[in-house]
Structures are given as structure tokens and as C-alpha cells.
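User: Hey, quick favor. My workstation is busy. Could you predict this chain's structure for me?
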Amino acid sequence: NINAIEHKSQIASHSARLALVWVIVLSSICIAIALLMLFSIPKTLTAPIRMLVNGILEISNHNYEKRLSFDDQSEFGEVAISFNEMAKELAQYQKSSMAKIISTKQYLEIVINSIDYPIIGLDKNKNILFANNSASNILNLPSETMVNKSALDLSLSNDLLRRLIKGMDEKEQS
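Assistant: No problem, here it is.
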């Protein structure tokens, strides 16, 4: 009887050790898989979001040629298609807007230059935006040298422009 009990006890101890080894092996495998998932899944999820954010930043910097490419089967496939359509439409809008602005500017330059009276356009900082031919002739300064320059700086070497600027200052103060 004692031999049978010892034999059964040895079998139970062996089975317990074997079960413990299997539990340790399976636990190690599960921990390794969990660590692998911990480091790979966030990168897999955040990489498309980072690409989308970078694309949005490019568009906000007026780079309308930026395109995104994701697998059409992925969750971001539809987002990429919509993003690319938006970028294409913005590029077309910018081109048409610039064309309108340039043609309007050219038209205004022609109209201003056709007027016989001297005309000088200043911004709020007294930088010269435009000057027609009559103003250029009277001030004895080529309009190319006046445009985008400070009227205050140019008035230092031009008496008539200095008097005009002084007259403007006096009207603003009164």
C-alpha cells in the first residue's frame, strides 16, 4: 500500500513539474508575443496618422502637389483619396486665383499709367506700391526704383517727394 502511495506521489510530482514547465514555457511565449504587439501595433496605427498630419501641414504651407498613398483596402484609403482630391482642387483654385489677380493687376497698371495726373500709391507704412509714368517724370525717378521702396527713404534724396510726404503727415495730424 505504501509503495502504491509513493508511486502515485512520484507520478503526481512528475506531472506537477511537467505542468509547471509547460506553464512557464507558455507564459514566456505569451509575454514575448505581448511585448512584440506592444511595440509593433502602435507604430502600425500611428504611421498613417503621421503621414496624414504631414500631408495636412504641407497643404497648410501651400504645397498643393502633396499626395497621400495608402492601400485602398485600409481604413485610410478613403481618407487618402479625399485628401488627394482636396489637394488637386486647391491647386486648381490657386492657379485660377493667381491668374485673376495678375490680370487685374496688369489692367490696373494700364489704367493708372494712362492717367495724365501723377499718381503714387502708398501702403500704411508709407512704402510705395505703384507710381504711374507722370509721377515718375515729375519726381525724376524711374518707377522701377520707387516701387516696393520706402517713400520716407526716397524722400531723403528727393525734395518734391519730401514735401508730399510732409504734406501727408500734416493732414494726418489735423
